[in-house]
């Protein structure tokens, strides 16, 4: 039984690539040194996979920054402004990825976007009218040969032309139709070169196929692959799909002469139905994505074998089935071996990239055994025993509480309009109230205080004392600046999810389970281990203290349940819906606690709400918003009418889900608007958006101080589209990454601008 891996993490077991790249950016190591680190990582990855006996081992899954950017460079899709810098090949590449601001010029980076439904970000290629597509495949061929030198006959991974064209931004007048022929002919050349170098198999990733496709998309796909597959390059072409099912194009795919097709049976809800309904051709290999490439739980062999059996029945034989990961392992950490602190009872339930290789091997062996031998085999028995033994994972009280949620618990009363009146009276804020998003600059001293406390260098009392001094100063500063609604500054938080996770039961944390988010940036998502509930009050002490420091209104600051869930590794033994409701109840307890302690305004951040919208529009509500929005409502439905609930989102691209955002039923929403064209405001108006809004009036992602005039202009533009009584004045996100000086200057101007606009009437 054969096995396949779609891609392996490339940041290195101890993030070696990250550290080497960062040194290279600072000029501390040479290009050669960086390339040596990279080559060591690639070798280690190849050897590890080969050691585990993986049949189809990928090459060219490595990248110095991002595979989509690699693909752009492979075909010379490099905007002029980067070429004109006259840098080395590698530095031109990094200039596209990160921007360039040194002696040779000043250019911004290309845009970055989320890679489908993951937390990985790709670089958006830009196609200009005079871009000349031209193959430059030395690196790809070199990497193939590198594997050969280790005695590994790898499959060469490529991002396919369909996905590449769909993700590329055409900045001139040209369109996909103008360039598709040239591009696909260069892909054909590439296949010929691979063949000439001795390569036998190419795996072409086309994840875009799991999205909603229209007839034009299908035409484009067929056009491209008609040429590729009829080019007689002599290499076997595998079509690899992932992150969902290919329901819109499956019938076409099975008619095309691919040597194999990779199908995701983990996230692809319709995958089994598709093969059952339309069959699978006997002349092709089915790469069955059965080991989850995105989550960190051990595979349940029983379930996987059952799925395998269904597939085998459809194919009438297992001869042409390959056991594969569901997507690249890029999305999971390297190995559980690096975790030294977490107890074995936890660790043994996790499979990171390296452990998943063993799973592939064991599953491949198990499916070859008859039922009796299977059940008797050690790895099967161990696996089943493991799944039967989850420690401390279930909490009956939490489950009962979720099961007892009533329809009315999702409904805050009285209705918005009535609350709005009550709150205006009670809070007595001026027109265009000014506020911030929560965090204030996290200086080195702030971070040190947290670190020292965590490492036991200082006592809890010392830690608290430091933070309280910071809070008192932060409040005094805000009073001096003249803001209307004050915040405590969030000095206690390393991260808006991890901080809450640490105060909730049901969470576990890793030491080194890093996953690449983009380029050299990695994240370490906490793991939802068991039923989640609030262990203790989380933010109340800080908010209460801040309130004591002032007579002004203080806004409490929380992270919402959808964001907490989306930035964690979720459980697989209960539904996402149940998980988010558990978290919602925990945060609800905190909301009520804050209210009971006199906090009259509470902000519940949902920075990650939009990012898990399903890839297919038809699934947006049924698979996500229909429970995500109610979960948010559950968090705040218990508060008094006069308590004002805010929420915040770090983006304004919610034009297409405005009714859902309004249905969160917050009293105020602040969001990023300073970098967008304020088009969102038209859409809010058209949709009769009821929630009060604070579209950020300046960009906090840069140290630049906005002038009063600029902010006044922004506000006046907003006033053209929004009711004065609904408009708040605030920056567009938290200030934690900013310095003290520019923060103060910017906020002073913000307050002056609000006063000026108030005086206009
Ligand atoms: N309240 C958080 C802060 O101000 C919000 C962060 C975010 O939106 N990402 O930092
Ligand atoms: Zn934000």
From TrEMBL:
L-methionine binds at residues 437-439, 490, 605. Keywords: Amino-acid biosynthesis, Metal-binding, Methionine biosynthesis, Methyltransferase, Repeat, Transferase, Zinc. Its EC number is 2.1.1.14. Zn(2+) 1 binds at residues 648, 650, 672, 733. It catalyses: 5-methyltetrahydropteroyltri-L-glutamate + L-homocysteine = tetrahydropteroyltri-L-glutamate + L-methionine. It holds the Pfam family Meth_synt_2. Residues 3-314 form the Cobalamin-independent methionine synthase MetE N-terminal domain. Binds 2 Zn(2+) ions per subunit. Binds 1 zinc ion per subunit. Zn(2+) binds at residues 648, 650, 672, 733. Residues 432-755 form the Cobalamin-independent methionine synthase MetE C-terminal/archaeal domain. Pathway: Amino-acid biosynthesis; L-methionine biosynthesis via de novo pathway; L-methionine from L-homocysteine (MetE route): step 1/1. GO terms for biological process: methionine biosynthetic process; methylation. The keyword Amino-acid biosynthesis applies. 5-methyltetrahydropteroyltri-L-glutamate binds at residues 15-18, 114, 119, 521-522, 567, 611. GO terms for molecular function: 5-methyltetrahydropteroyltriglutamate-homocysteine S-methyltransferase activity; zinc ion binding. Its cofactor is Zn(2+). L-homocysteine binds at residues 437-439, 490, 605. It comes from the Bacteria. Catalyzes the transfer of a methyl group from 5-methyltetrahydrofolate to homocysteine resulting in methionine formation. It is an enzyme of class 2 (transferase). Belongs to the vitamin-B12 independent methionine synthase family. SUPFAM superfamilies: UROD/MetE-like. The active site is at residue 701. This is 5-methyltetrahydropteroyltriglutamate--homocysteine methyltransferase.
């Amino acid at each position: 039984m054969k096995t396949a891996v779609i891609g392996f993490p490339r940041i290195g077991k101890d993030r070696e690539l990250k550290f080497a790249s960062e040194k290279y950016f600072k000029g501390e190591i040479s290009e050669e040194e960086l390339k040596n680190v990279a080559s060591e990582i690639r070798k280690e990855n190849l050897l590890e996979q080969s050691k585990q006996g993986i049949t189809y081992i990928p090459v060219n899954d490595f990248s110095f920054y991002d595979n989509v950017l690699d693909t752009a460079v492979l075909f010379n899709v490099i905007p002029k402004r980067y070429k004109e810098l006259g840098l080395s090949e590698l530095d031109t590449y990094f200039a596209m990825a990160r921007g360039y601001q040194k002696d040779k010029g000043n250019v911004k980076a290309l845009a970055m976007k989320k890679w489908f439904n993951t937390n990985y970000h790709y670089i958006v290629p830009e196609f200009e009218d005079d871009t000349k597509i031209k193959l430059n495949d030395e690196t790809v061929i070199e990497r193939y040969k590198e594997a050969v030198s280790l005695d590994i006959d790898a499959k060469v991974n490529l991002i396919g032309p369909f996905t590449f064209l769909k993700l590329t931004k055409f900045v001139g007048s040209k369109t996909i139709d103008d360039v598709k022929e040239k591009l696909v002919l260069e892909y054909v050349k590439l296949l010929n070169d691979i063949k000439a170098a001795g390569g036998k198999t190419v795996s072409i990733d086309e994840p875009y196929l799991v999205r909603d496709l229209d007839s034009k998309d299908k035409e484009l796909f067929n056009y491209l692959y008609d040429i590729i597959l009829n080019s007689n390059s002599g290499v076997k072409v595998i079509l690899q799909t992932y992150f969902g099912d290919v329901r819109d194009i499956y019938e076409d795919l099975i008619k095309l002469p691919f040597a194999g097709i990779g199908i995701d049976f983990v996230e692809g809800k319709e995958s089994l139905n598709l093969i059952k309904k339309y069959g699978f051709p006997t002349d092709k290999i089915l790469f069955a994505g059965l080991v989850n490439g995105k989550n960190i739980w051990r595979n349940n062999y029983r379930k996987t074998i059952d799925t395998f059996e269904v597939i085998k029945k459809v194919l009438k034989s297992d001869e042409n089935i390959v056991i594969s990961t569901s997507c690249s392992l890029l999305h999971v950490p390297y190995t559980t071996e690096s975790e030294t602190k977490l107890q074995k009872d936890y660790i043994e339930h996790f499979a990171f990239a390296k452990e998943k290789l063993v799973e592939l091997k064991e599953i491949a062996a198990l499916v070859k055994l008859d039922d009796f031998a299977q059940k008797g085999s050690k790895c099967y028995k161990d696996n089943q025993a493991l799944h039967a033994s989850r420690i401390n994972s279930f909490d009956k009280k939490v489950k009962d509480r979720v099961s007892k949620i009533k329809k009315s618990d999702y409904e805050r009363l009285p209705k918005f309009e009535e609350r709005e009146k009550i709150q205006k009276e009670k809070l007595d804020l001026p027109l265009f109230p000014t506020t911030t998003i929560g965090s204030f600059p996290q200086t080195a001293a702030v971070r040190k205080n947290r670190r020292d406390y965590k490492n036991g260098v200082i006592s809890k009392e010392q830690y608290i004392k430091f933070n309280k001094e910071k809070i008192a100063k932060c409040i005094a500063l805000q009073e001096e600046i003249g803001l209307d609604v004050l915040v405590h500054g969030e000095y206690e938080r390393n991260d808006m999810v991890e901080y809450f996770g640490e105060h909730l039961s049901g969470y576990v944390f890793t030491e080194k389970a890093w996953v690449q988010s983009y380029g050299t940036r990695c994240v370490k998502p906490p793991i939802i281990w068991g039923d989640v509930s609030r262990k203790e009050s989380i933010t109340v002490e800080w908010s209460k203290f801040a309130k004591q420091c002032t007579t002004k209104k203080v806004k409490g600051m929380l992270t919402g349940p959808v964001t907490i869930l989306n930035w964690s590794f979720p459980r697989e033994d209960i539904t996402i819906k149940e998980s988010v409701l558990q978290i919602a109840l925990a945060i609800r307890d905190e909301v009520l606690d804050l209210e009971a302690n006199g906090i009259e305004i509470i902000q519940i951040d949902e920075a990650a709400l939009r990012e898990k919208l399903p890839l297919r529009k038809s699934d947006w509500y049924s698979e996500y918003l229909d429970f995500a929005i109610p979960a948010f409502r559950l968090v705040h439905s218990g508060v008094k009418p006069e308590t004002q609930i805010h929420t915040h989102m770090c983006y304004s691209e919610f034009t297409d889900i405005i009714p859902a955002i309004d249905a969160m039923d917050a009293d105020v929403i602040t969001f990023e608007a300073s970098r967008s064209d304020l088009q969102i405001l038209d859409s809010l108006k058209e949709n009769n958006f009821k929630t009060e809004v604070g579209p950020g009036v300046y960009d906090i992602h840069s140290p630049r101080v906005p002038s009063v005039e600029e902010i006044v202009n922004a506000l006046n533009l907003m006033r053209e589209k929004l009711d004065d009584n609904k408009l708040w004045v605030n920056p567009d996100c938290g200030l934690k990454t900013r310095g003290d000086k520019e923060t103060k200057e910017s906020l002073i101007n913000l307050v002056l601008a609000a006063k000026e606009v108030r005086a206009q009437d």
